[in-house]
Amino acid sequence: MLKAHKIETNKSLQRKIIWLDLFVISLFFILVLRLWYLQVIKGQEYRIRSEHNRIRLREIPAYRGKIMDRNGIILVDNKPSYNLYLIPEEIKKVDDLLKKLSYMVKLDNIKEIKEKLLNIKKACAFKPICIKRGLSFDEVAKIETNKLLLQGVVIRVEGKRNYIYGKLASHILGYISWDRKGKAGIEYKWDKFLSGTPGGMQIEVDATGRIVRVISKRLPVAGDNVYLTIDKRLQQKAEQLLQGKSGAIVALNPKDGEVLAMASSPSFDPNRFVEGMDQKA
Questions:
Q1: Model confidence over 105-118: pLDDT tens digits?
Q2: What are the angstrom distances between the C-alpha of 105 and each of 47, 112, 138, 186?
Q3: Is the residue at 46 inside a domain?
Q4: Are residues 128 and 164 in the same domain?
Q5: What domain range includes position 12?
């Protein structure tokens, strides 16, 4: 009796082991089948996705600080500018791309752009190169409409320096270069404070350069505003007195020596440097 019970127990255990083996084999078979499906059936699709979706590090420029007169009247601020960038590593045929762009955007230096793209170091190929600033709305619309045909082309909205009163106090204010660095006057002297701290973000983009998702982001810190001792109204009056003449006028506060106006003629419009400045400057 005891022997029969023992035999029955062994058979039950063997059946359980068989079922367990079958379960493991089935699980292994399903896993192999799934891997075959992903690599053979869906392999090309995923390979294309991996090639088209890329991780980029994009700098977010900080807005430059404003410059104001002693009464808080803004003399210099920023306005949005649509700037055209190319990412060398994503461009397959430089000539074809530049030809397509030339039908949509006026490019005066195509030869120089081509040379720069072809000679750029491999380590810097991921870094966007600005080829034109201040695109018109019509140009932006044409590029965005044909984005699928323009691989490696990116439009960024960035701050453009705006000297509100044109020539007013131009010798005092100075101007900035294409890379937003002060080159003369207050812009140069207080560049460290006006510049601010740029931010950045890590993004995933598709084949057209459109953002798929933002992985991480650090916001920029705008530059500090600078207040001058200059009085805008006195400055305007001094410059009016110098119209058509060569010379200079300086007005000081007799109590503390603060400069209230400092005009010089002939003068210039700093906005022309902003609009016409390129990377040769």
A1: 988 888 888 888 87
A2: 34, 16, 9, 34
A3: no
A4: yes
A5: 2-41
- Supply 175's token pair: 């101007």
Q: Please check whether residues 146 and 271 belong to one and the same domain.
A: yes
Q: Read off the pLDDT of residues 176-230 as tens digits, 9 standing for 90 and up.
A: 987 788 999 999 999 999 999 999 988 887 766 677 888 889 999 999 999 999 9
Residue with tokens 């966007």: 128
pTM, 2 dp: 0.71
Angle, vertex CA 49, rays to CA 47 and CA 51, nearest 5: 70
| Cα→Cα distances 37→25, 44, 49, 157, Å | 18, 11, 16, 43
265 with 247: CB under 8 angstroms?
yes
| Residue 184: CB atoms within 10 Å | 17
Farthest CA pair distance, the chain: 130
Determine the Cα angle at 28 with ends 24 and 32, to 5°: 170
